[in-house]
Design goal:
Order of helices and strands: HHHH
Strand content: under 5%
Number of helices: 4
Radius of gyration: 13 Å
Oligomer: single chain
Largest sheet: none
Number of strands: 0
Distance between the termini: 42 Å
C-alpha cells in the first residue's frame, strides 16, 4: 500500500482479488484515467460502495454457486 493512499480498503481489496483499476473502470463504464483520477482523493460513500460492488462482481464473489455435493 502506498503511503498516500486515500482509499486503502479499495486498493487492498482489488489487489487481494487480483483486479486491476482498468477492469473496475470498465465495469463502471468510465474511462480508466477517470477512475485513476478519482482514486487520488477519498471517495464519497456512494462511489466507494459501487467500486466495492464492482470488485466483488469481477472477482466472482457475488452470486457464487453453492459447491455442496449433490
Amino acid at each position: 500500500m502506498r503511503k498516500l493512499d486515500k482509499n486503502p480498503e479499495i486498493t487492498e481489496k482489488a489487489a487481494k482479488c487480483g483486479i486491476y483499476y482498468w477492469q473496475i473502470a470498465e465495469f463502471l463504464k468510465i474511462a480508466d484515467t477517470t477512475f485513476s483520477r478519482k482514486m487520488r482523493y477519498k471517495l464519497d460513500e456512494q462511489t466507494r460502495l459501487k467500486v466495492i460492488f464492482a470488485i466483488e462482481a469481477l472477482s466472482g464473489q457475488l452470486n457464487e454457486p453453492s459447491k455442496k455435493s449433490q
